[in-house]
């Protein structure tokens, strides 16, 4: 049965539902193989009747969860030869274009068609070669499908996943902590702690979201970091990033990194892009660079940083130990353009998040 939807809902109603869908999407695991997706189903009056989100690979997609949560008045009765006609008045609002391929679950386009949904509104088109094209499939089934709803907002939210789909390389987040004047350490090399406990706790949460965490051999030898993601009480987060060390110097057998629950990976650092490609082959889709300044600057110089997290403490240190060294810029007109994303207060410290203009 081809759905016969009611008149389209007004834009402000659809946008409000999309904002809710973004909130729902965040309930799914971050930096997962599959994207974080949320779905809200509205009735002909613009009232929410069901919601869903994707809980990770191998679980129902957001649209399917929402369809499973529909009230019985919109579901086909036992023995029915087709969908419930009442479903034609429903509009599914979803952050990502419904998928159009068979993976671990049936295509969402098929689920929406079988349910008799009358309209679908989505934010971002699915860039996948196999999974894309869902909107065309829906239209062929007589469903009113339209994209671009709050697209810029959702692209920012999904930037890590979208970047990996576009490049095949891990999404690279560069983090540093510095004084107000940009120093990562005092003149004698001490740096613990520039930032306070709130900022450090936030860093560990970010670590837990990443697939891998990277340091240079200089940092590994000087600081002997464990490179784990820890809660404020010292316990480990359930998800731990793979530790990666870049450089040619050997790491002692007694180093803390060997106690990491994940097996460390080592690269000489001569070809960072090739390193990223190899990390992708290990199913690493997001990378969190902890330092030091030389490694951070190398990534910046080669244009391989997608996002920067700068934790700024309200202190002055002076001296030459800057958070970033030479990145190959000799004049102001060559400055790397970045897009401000957010400014967050963490105790007495400030987190400034910016993204590369090519990342979203």
Give structural notes:
The protein is an alpha/beta fold. Helices cover 26% and strands 21% of the residues. The protein has an 8-stranded mixed sheet, with helices on both faces. Strands 2-1-3-4-5 form a 5-stranded mixed sheet, sandwiched between helices. Helix 8 (217-223) links the parallel strand 7 (212-216) and strand 8 (242-246). The model has no long low-confidence stretch (mean pLDDT 91).
For this entry, give a set of tags:
360 residues, alpha/beta, eight-stranded mixed β-sheet, 10 helices, 13 strands
Short description:
By secondary structure, this protein is α/β, with parallel strands linked by helices. Helix 3 packs parallel to helix 4.
Q: If you average the pLDDT, what whole number results?
A: 91
Strand count: 13
> Which structural category fits the helices and strands?
alpha/beta
Our measurement of the CA-to-CA distance between the termini, rounded to an integer number of angstroms, reads 39 Å
Provide the gyration radius in Å.
24 Å
Which shape, going by the Cα principal axes? elongated
Q: What share of residues are in beta strands?
A: 15-25%
Strand order of the largest sheet: 9-8-7-10-6-11-13-12
Biggest sheet layout: 8 strands, mixed
Helix content: 25-40%
Q: What is the subunit organization of this protein?
A: single chain
Number of helices: 10
Q: What is the string of SSEs from the N terminus onward?
A: HEEHEHEHEHHEHEHEEHEHEEE
């Amino acid at each position: 049965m081809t759905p016969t939807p009611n008149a389209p809902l007004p834009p402000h109603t659809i946008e409000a539902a999309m904002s809710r869908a973004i909130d729902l999407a965040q309930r799914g695991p971050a930096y997962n193989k599959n994207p974080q997706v949320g779905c809200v189903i509205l009735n002909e009056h613009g009232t929410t009747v069901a919601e869903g989100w994707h809980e990770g690979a191998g679980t129902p997609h957001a649209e399917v969860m929402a369809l499973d949560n529909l009230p019985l008045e919109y579901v086909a009765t036992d023995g029915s030869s087709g969908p419930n006609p009442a479903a034609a008045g429903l509009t599914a609002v979803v952050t990502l274009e419904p998928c159009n391929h068979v993976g671990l679950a049936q295509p969402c386009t098929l689920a929406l068609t079988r349910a008799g949904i009358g309209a679908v509104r989505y934010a971002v088109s699915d860039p996948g070669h196999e999974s894309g094209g869902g909107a065309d499939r829906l239209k062929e089934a007589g469903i009113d499908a339209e994209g671009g709803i709050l697209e810029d907002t959702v692209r920012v939210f999904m930037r890590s996943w979208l970047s990996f789909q576009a490049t095949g390389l891990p999404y690279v987040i560069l983090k540093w902590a510095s004084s107000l004047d940009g120093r990562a350490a005092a003149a004698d090399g001490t740096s613990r702690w520039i930032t306070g406990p709130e900022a450090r706790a936030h860093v560990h949460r970010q670590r837990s979201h990443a697939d891998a965490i990277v340091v240079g051999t200089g940092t590994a030898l000087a600081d002997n970091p464990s490179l784990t993601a820890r809660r404020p009480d010292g316990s480990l987060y359930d998800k731990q990033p793979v530790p990666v060390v870049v450089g040619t110097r050997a790491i002692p057998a007694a180093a803390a990194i060997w106690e990491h629950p994940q097996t460390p990976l080592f690269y000489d650092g001569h070809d960072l892009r090739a390193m990223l490609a190899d990390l992708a082959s290990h199913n690493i889709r997001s990378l969190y660079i902890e330092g030091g300044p030389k490694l951070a600057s190398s990534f910046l110089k080669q244009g391989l940083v997608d996002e920067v997290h700068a934790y700024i403490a309200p202190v002055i240190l002076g001296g030459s130990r800057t958070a970033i060294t030479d990145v190959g810029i000799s004049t102001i007109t060559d400055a790397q353009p970045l897009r401000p994303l957010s400014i967050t207060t963490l105790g007495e410290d400030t987190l400034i998040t910016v993204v590369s203009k090519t990342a979203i």
